[in-house]
Specification:
445 residues; alpha/beta; 8-stranded mixed beta sheet; 3-stranded antiparallel beta sheet
Amino acid sequence: MAARYQISGSSSAAISASVESGIRAGDLAPGDALPAVRALAVELGVSPATVAKAYQELRQRGLVVTAGRHGTRVRPRPPVASRRSALMPPPLPGARDVSAGNPDSRLLPPLGPHLAALAAEFRAPGGYAASAVLPELAAAARDRLAADGVPADEITVTGGALDGIERLLAAHLRPGDAVAVEDPGWANLLDLVAALGLRAIGVPVDDEGPTAPGVRAALAAGARALIVTSRAQNPTGAAVSADRATELRTLLAGRADLLLIEDDHAAELARVPLHPLAGATPAWAFVRSVSKPYGPDLRLAVLAGDEATVARVAGRARVGAGWVSTVLQRLVLALWRDPATADLVRRAAESYERRRDGLVDALAARGLAAHGRTGINVWVPVPDETVAVTALRDAGWSVAPGALNRIAAAPGVRITVSTLDEADLGPLADAVARAVRPSPAGFSA
């Protein structure tokens, strides 16, 4: 914890507000340790129970995390904006950033021509009552999902995959409920689960998706929801195989107490068949975002599911944000209908596959196991994340530490291939090999 920041307060609410204020101001940084409960109680002249309640409130809001003997710390990405966030130190000059997880901007479809065409044919502005899911978008989405074996009689749209998942969890669960999530898994999702006051149960992942024993253990531990990435799992690149889908369907069959959520965020970028679990449980949802294939600025996802689940999501949207912009819906529909865009997305998928497979093969040639079956990321297990990240930084490569993605999984680093050219793969693999097996001379701090 920053020595200059003093937590204050004589009640649990005041103490938790003081900690939040420190996080907003940047005086308490992500990862900073908070004082032990008894030590802070003595310092503030309150009972340990008062401090413990304050810390519990902060945990339920996703601002802090309790890590056993490591005590209570500010979460890596707490759900509160910091005034000092813009003052974070930039990457080292000249370093190659392979940490961001973004698609290759060179391979995203151009939006200008489609926006111009929409402007030319734009109808009279719609009103509040008329704004919902465009029938033509819904029809196109149903056809695309049906082609992949996803039943889509009931459908709505949300402001991206994470927005859809948040609405699903909020509609079905209550603070304190347990959610089974992939481990390692999507950092944003882990943060969302914490921010909603839910309890994450990690499910181990291999190249074929969440393992059946891991799912079984999560169900036995009381999981009320299970979130599965269909393909291009972040960070490992896993994709649910046909055999794994059959195994999980058998395991989940008839679980009326469980909400099943599938996230197919990569969609057309994943060059492996989809093996959906949709319908394995009475309450289910399948979410497909357009951000990875068509551009992160397109905040739209299609959400299919059983009638009650879709109705809950649509109903919550109606009393909140209302709807996803029909202008955005028309733009997405135009992209789906454009053969040139489809060809560009296909070529992007092929390019990612070459770079991802090339890096995995280059690492294997240097004696390092790595995972990247689909998607834009490669997960490299390492003995020590701090050593590996620091050594790679010194070598001019900025990678993502796996700590953001892990609950109980072994250490690793995530490398995004979208900014790499094929000529970069060998030098990067060399740098990773040196970072994982540093010379006795060591590295700079």
